[in-house]
Design a protein that fits this description.
This protein has 249 residues and is of the alpha/beta class. The protein is 34% helix and 19% strand. A 6-stranded mixed beta sheet has the order 2-1-3-6-4-5, with helices on both faces. The protein has a two-stranded antiparallel ribbon with strand order 7-8. It is globular, with a radius of gyration of 18 Å. The mean pLDDT is 90.
Length: 249
């Protein structure tokens, strides 16, 4: 039978969400968050089915496999911090970045594809909770639109902190995926770094730090995935209604 997926109809315009993780090999929590996203998206959950029908997810779960294999903290086999080489990655020295960047540029140049989100998943050694880094734009309206996804994620994930989320153009970060792609892609694309604490998140008061577990990281990943439902307002397409949301929102 023909697929019900809107995005697979011949000639359909595809909305693409591109997710990468583990560019810094020591940041193991990012792999668990990414695993949570993948597990949710391929599941039979009604939200996952709606997302698969309307969006295309491209996921590169490990951008630095040699660094991970060697047990490096930040660099690749050749000693490069890959997250500073997005501007001009070498096919020889930075092959994973080069491949991903080529794919992103191909999609960007394809009129049938809208690359709407780029999210690079990291872990943070000193801050608590999950939070995001975004880009700074001169255009105030674009800046406001960029804040929508992290605000929605904050409503879905108790461990995600909007107050720790920041938007910057620090020169040190110029070679990162978020910064480079934020400059390359047009103003309908949103590029973020998703950070999650190596150790704890805070619920309620300042004294109530909860240690992260593998399951809690994966839950954050599931909540990232389901936030796309809210972002695209696809809730009406679910076969059965979700639990009612409190009116206070």
């Amino acid at each position: 039978p023909p697929s019900t997926a809107v995005n697979l109809h011949p000639g359909a315009e595809q909305k693409v969400v591109f997710i990468t993780a583990r560019v810094h090999p020591g940041e193991t929590p990012s792999s668990f968050v990414c695993q949570g996203i993948i597990d949710f998206l391929v599941s039979q959950h009604p939200i996952a089915k709606v997302l698969r029908d309307h969006l295309v997810f491209k996921i590169a779960p490990m951008l630095n496999p040699d660094g991970v294999y060697l047990g490096n903290y930040r660099c690749s086999l050749m000693g490069f911090d890959l997250n500073r080489h997005w501007a001009n990655p070498s096919p020889w020295a930075h092959p994973t970045l080069h491949g991903v960047k080529q794919l992103i540029i191909e999609m960007y140049n394809n009129p049938k594809i809208n690359l709407e989100f780029y999210i690079d998943i990291h872990a943070h050694s000193t801050m608590m909770n999950g939070f995001m880094y975004g880009n700074i734009f001169e255009d105030e309206e674009r800046f406001q639109r960029q804040a929508v996804f992290p605000k929605l994620l904050c409503q879905n994930a108790e461990d995600f902190s909007y107050s720790s989320t920041s938007f910057n153009r620090d020169a040190v970060k110029a070679g990162t995926g978020r910064r480079f792609l934020g400059g390359l892609l047009n103003d309908t694309s949103y590029c973020y770094t998703l950070e999650v604490s190596f150790y704890s998140y805070i619920l309620g008061g300042p004294t109530s730090a909860v240690p992260y577990t593998e399951e809690a990281y994966m839950k954050l990943g599931r909540n990232v995935a389901r936030t796309f439902l809210d972002y695209y307002r696809l809730n009406t397409l679910l076969e059965r209604p979700l639990a009612p949301t409190p009116k206070t929102r």
